[in-house]
Amino acid sequence: MGSCICRLRYRRGEPLGLSYYRALNFSDLPFEIRSKVYRLVLVYQNAVIVSVQSEKYCKWLPDSIDYELDLGILQVSKAISVEAAAIFYRFNTFAFYGHDTWTALFNFLVIIDPANRAHLRHIKAGISKPLELTRLAGGTLVASLEQHCAQCEIYPPENCPRKSLQYEVYPPDNHPRLRPPYDRIGDEIVDHVNSSIEAVFRILGSDGPLLQLTLMMEYGLVPGVQIGLHDEEPERDDWSLEIPDHLERLRKLHTVGNAGKGKVRVLWKGRVPKMFFYPYVEEEIKEAGWKYWERKKRNSG
Length: 301
Hints:
Blueprint: E1 4-9, E2 17-22, H1 31-42, E3 48-52, E4 58-61, H2 65-68, H3 78-91, E5 93-96, H4 101-111, H5 113-117, E6 122-126, E7 132-135, E8 141-144, H6 145-152, E9 167-170, E10 182-184, E11 187-191, H7 196-204, E12 211-216, H8 242-255, E13 264-269, H9 279-287
Parallel strand pairs: 3-5, 5-6, 6-12, 12-13
Antiparallel strand pairs: 1-2, 3-4, 7-8, 7-11, 8-9, 10-11
């Protein structure tokens, strides 16, 4: 028996009695009211940073989010959990940073299951310049150990436990190269294409409401543009348009339906210091197909 309210019933000339009424609970409130409550306790003012711990578990960051949001409401009951999850995933922005964000994003999409994936509207992912690989005869891809460790930032090259190895070997990728590789001292250099990129677009599919995927580029780096921020290491500015072109091809292949409307909209965002915004940089940005605007400082008053 559910909760009830007991009231004394008294009428002149009759014995004292009790009246029972079913108690109202949260589910009895109109959905509009419940929705407002969900938004108050489940929508974070900033992006919810996702830390994927394994292929079956992820946690929300910062740790204070457990105190600022009432995530326990997601486990009250099956009916309330379904309603609350729809609000949580629809009105929050989920962010991914660190090494290999594409794999982390894919694992997150698998973990939250299709019902919750359908509610997603905003995802942010920090992306770095892709690892440059040397393509050998037969298609094998290799990266020097020093470059690999500098990219992943787990160990400095001199302290890497794999320092006895000269190369890190990657399996050949089968995606069509939209842009030809370039030569560096006789070697054929290509950008490493993470296989999780296609997995992400495939699992998002073409059905459902619009989802915006915002890709946050490294500071001072724009694919296809030589900005010159790292004069002491000019190779750090070499970021081709291979990955943006490949990503756009996969977006169209997997997320654009028969009606020609894409479910996923990709927005690339980066920042370039104004002191490096020379005329030739501006021209290269336009030729690469990027749009830009000047960010004005806010008045201190």
